Amino acid sequence: MRVFFIGFGQAGGKIVDMFIEQDKKHPSRSFRAIAVNTARTDLMGLNQIELKDRILIGQTVVKGHGVGTDNVTGAKITADEIDSIINIIDDRGTHDIDAFVIVAGLGGGTGSGGSPVLARHLKRIYREPVYALGILPAPEEGRLYSYNAARSLSTLVNEADNTFIFDNSAWKNEGESVRGAYQRLNDEIVRRFGVLFRAGEVSKSGVGEMVVDSSEIINTLRGGGISSVGYAVSDTVSKSTKQRQGRAAGLLKGFKKKEAAEEVLTGEDKSAKIIGLVRRAMLGRLTLQCDYSTAERALVLIAGPPDDMDRKGVEKSKSWVEENIAGVEVRGGDYPTVSSKVAAVVVLATIGDAPRIRELLAIAKETKEDVIKSKERRATMFDDEEVDPLFE
Ligand SMILES: Nc1nc2c(ncn2[C@@H]2O[C@H](COP(=O)(O)OP(=O)(O)O)[C@@H](O)[C@H]2O)c(=O)[nH]1
Ligand SMILES: [Mg+2]
Q: Helix (H, G, I), strand (E, B), or coil: what is residue 237?
């Protein structure tokens, strides 16, 4: 899929920067990107996104210093400068893209407030779908982050055509700080979503047996709401792939023909391996822990060396996923890569239940009630003052 990424805020910018780094390693470039931020230093910290594609907004308001955790100001600045943001996006070219993807940490200020506003305007102007990839804060970051995330998410889910969630708290290790984990988490994010967003693009090693094109990804995501992604990778590659790679490297000069024939994986093995991978992807740690049986649709992607691909394996995995989710629409296919590993990605689209989302919404409700109560307290104080005998 050809994707136009908008990295909003610090987390968004960093993650999109890594998507571009990954894209540069592929013969066919599929990604285009800009970064938008109210903080100049965050933009300067990027490596891959070109300087002219790093957009500083809100200069008259916050003078390049960022909005802190004030997502209301983040939203306001974005709304005020939406025309210039859209002009820049338009100028970079949108005619050949399949989708927009806005990436942001939802617990902060700029990305949290700005993403829903940008999603609304992109949808209004373009026909291509607008997806969001939202990062949830860990509880240890404090109630304000959770509150910001809940408010941003409630709007974002309505504005974007589908919202992928990555939950920082489910991914950082015990005892590890969130900040200390960023680089590792970002690697995990880019690995998973890279496979998804690159699906359907032509690679050097040819076309898959069962190619997934962009319209299948788009149809999977059509239901909107929140989606979660599973991933598994197998280190063991089929012997035939190893041989081919060995031969290519000129390392297998003395390799005996008989041995070579014996070591080729049979169709059954390949198929079983793919099914095993898909099960691991769906039952393992998801980007957002959720009840997969509540997913409306799913997409199964297998990426790896052409010799490891297997039509029957993909078909069987799709049936297995279909038996386990709420809906019956399971799409999927394979695509060849030059990598020596086989990766499976399962997109659980439009999920009905995720504990962390419920928790966030509850925190937001509590926080809102606290704010109302403190306002009431202030009002009561004021009432008391009004009947203060001194003023009668
Ligand atoms: N996974 C991940 N999360 C991040 C990263 N940087 C910040 N975050 C999280 O994203 C949220 C928003 O922070 P930030 O992006 O700095 O806010 P903004 O710049 O105001 O949009 C917080 O919950 C951070 O913990 C990162 O590099 N990776
Ligand atoms: Mg920050």
A: coil
Structure tokens at 106: 């939802």
pTM of the predicted model over 0.85? yes
Q: How far is the CA of 180 from the centre of ligand 1 (A)?
A: 12
| HSE (side-chain half, CA atoms, 13 Å) at 140 | 11
- Among protein residues, the one whose CA lies closest to atom 3 of ligand 1: 11
Three-class DSSP category at 4 = strand
Angle of CA points 215, 115, 159, to nearest 5°: 55
Ligand 1 atom with the smallest distance to the CA of 183 is 27
Query: Cα of 334 to ligand 1 centre, how many Å?
Result: 33
Atom of ligand 1 nearest to the CA of 69: 20
CATH topology of domain 3-198: Rossmann fold (3.40.50)
**Residue boundaries of the structural domains of the chain:** 3-198, 229-349
261 pLDDT above the threshold of 50: no
- CATH annotation of 229-349: 3.30.1330.20
Protein residues with C-beta less than 5 angstroms from the ion ligand 2: 10
How far is C-alpha 377 from the geometric centre of its chain's CA atoms?
42
Closest-CA residue, ligand 1 atom 4, reads 11
Q: Tens of pLDDT along 32-68?
A: 999 999 999 999 999 999 999 999 999 999 999 999 9
Q: Which ligand is nearest to the CA of 46?
A: 1
Confidence (pLDDT) at 27: 78
Q: At what angle do helices 267-283 and 311-324 cross, to 10 degrees?
A: 30
Q: Which is more confidently placed, 277 or 335? A: 277
The model's pLDDT over 308-331, given as tens digits with 9 standing for 90+, comes to 888 999 999 999 999 999 999 999
- In Å, what is the CA distance from 363 to each residue of 72, 96, 185, 343? 18, 42, 24, 36
Angle at 164 between CA 12 and CA 366, to 5 degrees: 85
CA 13–ligand 1 middle distance (angstroms): 9
3-state secondary structure at position 24: coil
Please, which residues bridge with residue 345 across strands? Answer: 231, 301
